[in-house]
Fold this sequence. Notes:
By secondary structure, this protein is α+β, with helices and mostly antiparallel strands. It has one domain (13-233): Transposase IS200-like (Alpha-Beta Plaits, 2-Layer Sandwich). The protein has nine helices and seven strands, in the order E-H-E-E-H-E-H-H-H-H-H-H-E-H-E-E. The chain has a seven-stranded mixed beta sheet with strand order 2-3-1-4-5-7-6, sandwiched between helices. The longest helix has 20 residues, at 73-92. Mean pLDDT is 88; it is low at 237-251.
Amino acid sequence: MARAHRHYLPGCTWHITQRCHKKEFLFRFKHYKKRWMYWLYRAKQQFHISILDYMVTSNHIHLLALSDGKENEIAKTMHLVSGRTAWEFNHNRNRKGAFWEDRYHATAVETDNHLIRCMIYIDMNMVRAGVIKHPEEWPHCGYQELIGNKQRYSLINKERLMRMLQLKYDNFKEIYNEWIDEYLERKNFNRESCWTESIAVGNKIFVERIKKKLGVKARRRCIVEKPGTFKLKEPRTSYLLFPPIKKGFKG
């Protein structure tokens, strides 16, 4: 499997995924999920990224974030969060070796309906795995903040997200829950690989613009169209999400 790609362009919204070494359930204890969230909070303060959504499962993480700066604040954020989480885990458990499977993978997401679709994909992760029936049952994800539940460390930049979606917060909560309910009614929770295996996902103009900005980095990458969506593919699979967690497993 090729190493995960980490392209960076300022002003883009990125869906970031990273999994634990050998798909192990290293986040199976709530303490380490909370510590990952804590270090993400510290990184948000230090590097001033806008967090739009996130999810910590028992063996991988999702992060939807925006950086306006010219410096690669996304890479700095992931370096701090991933590094501190891994160090604490190994130190506390007297363990040696890799915590993460590989570098994180980043997919640029267009800020139209694709942004909403990506958020739903993130929040429905543990539903797809068969662990819960509704995202409200999983405390270690952005859904809790999005619907208004208080968190000790607030991570999501709701004001920025509302501006991007052109919605007022009260309207958003109602609409977003309707979207979640519609997704649940489909009862078709197949994984959408475009969010975790592509360089960019969005409309045709957006994907073409990303490819042009990447220049030689996008060489050999092709644009693929699916109904209502375009994606800039890697030449080969660079990130594979994990098989569903066994039903009944509690993280």
